[in-house]
Amino acid sequence: MESVVRRFGTPLYIYSARHIDQRLKLFHRAFGPIAHLVCYAVKANSTLAILDLLARRGAGFDVVSGGELERVLSVDRAAATRIVFSGVGKTAPEMDLALRSGILLFNVESEGELELLAERAAKLRTRARIALRVNPDVFAETHPYISTGMREHKFGIDIRRARAVYRKAGKYLEPSGVSVHIGSQIRSADPFGAAARRVARLIVELRKDGHAIRLMDVGGGLGVEYHPDRAFDAEEKVCQYAAALIPIVESLGSLRLLLEPGRFLVAQAGALLSRVLYVKKNGEKTFVIVDSAMNDLLRPALYQAYHEIVPVAPAQSSRKAVADVVGPVCETGDFFARDRTLPVLKPGDLVAILDTGAYGMSLASNYNSRPRPAEVLVEGKRVRLIRRRETIDEMLALERV
Ligand code: LLP
After folding, report:
1. Half-sphere exposure of 284 (CA within 13 A, CB side)
2. Which ligand 1 atom is at minimum distance from the Cα of 186?
3. Atom of ligand 1 minimally distant from the CA of 185
4. Most CB atoms closer than 10 Å: which of 8, 53, 134, 339?
5. Superfamily of domain covering 2-12+268-385
6. Could you tell me the pTM of the whole model?
């Protein structure tokens, strides 16, 4: 690892291609008995090489902006027919791009969006395949910022109104599916089953109304375990998830299941490598100051998320101490760990912040005018730079005085 860092510097995101590959295979194996398409949620990690890796293995994609759509198309134009477009605020230019590319499905989140999409499709003389993203009013136990499936959230269309909205949609568009997404980092399969059952009831009604519903999109949200001391068996998790969904899908006859996992595929494939700059004491507390910060990895600051931190080289001594691991950004919220028992660290040591492949780089910013980190991909014995470190000149290039 030292040699990788000598070549590419820190902070550095490092990902394992094999891990992502294995996670995708777990999905395919678990959902093997039914027709399904894994539409990777691009927002989790939108780096082109990651998208390319998944596209080459036949994955589809869930995008939420024109930018994400362009990213996918830039690595594989032919992937368009495997793209679903989600998001509460699609603009006309984004719709036009998606319509021209011939994507698989628009997940429509409001009646206003439905009207605009009908208008754009008419203008471009094309039919848009749509699903309404319904809000099933299901409680999913997760962080409040990433729970989305309850009536008071901004997402989706109230499932009780869906039938009427489909009736209206059927006049101008092609209702082909129903979609739902109840939140992220959900550890139990139960809420997914509960939401899917409600969607299934709606599908039966919609078919009675004459809509040819062929797709059921259950969104993403399958969680991973970030704490090393809690058991986590990825295969068992996907199998439980599949067991909750497959019977529901099978009960509906001819139907293709769309899945939108993000975190589950990439979170544990990545780590953020950082160098210890200083170690200091303030009163009783020890602070380990590293060269990455909340702008590189926002999850701890934003969600008080736990990420395991390990020294990269075997520790010189077995001594441990309690410390906060913090970045150089001028905010108290700029921390990676608080009151964590860690091997004693000293300036120059290299640490890895684990399980940061999802919502790490994709949430990175230039806050405090810090250039965003570089990213490398490990493929077998090869380590390849997939995004070089941003320069200060690049950061300033868009501005004029
Ligand atoms: N589909 C839709 C419509 C979504 O909104 C999301 C995530 C996904 C799929 C993928 O969910 P996943 O399988 O990754 O849980 N930044 C937060 C997570 C935000 C998730 C937003 N939507 C975090 O770092 O925990």
Report:
1. 2
2. 15
3. 15
4. 134
5. Lyase, Ornithine Decarboxylase; Chain A, domain 1 (2.40.37.10)
6. 0.97
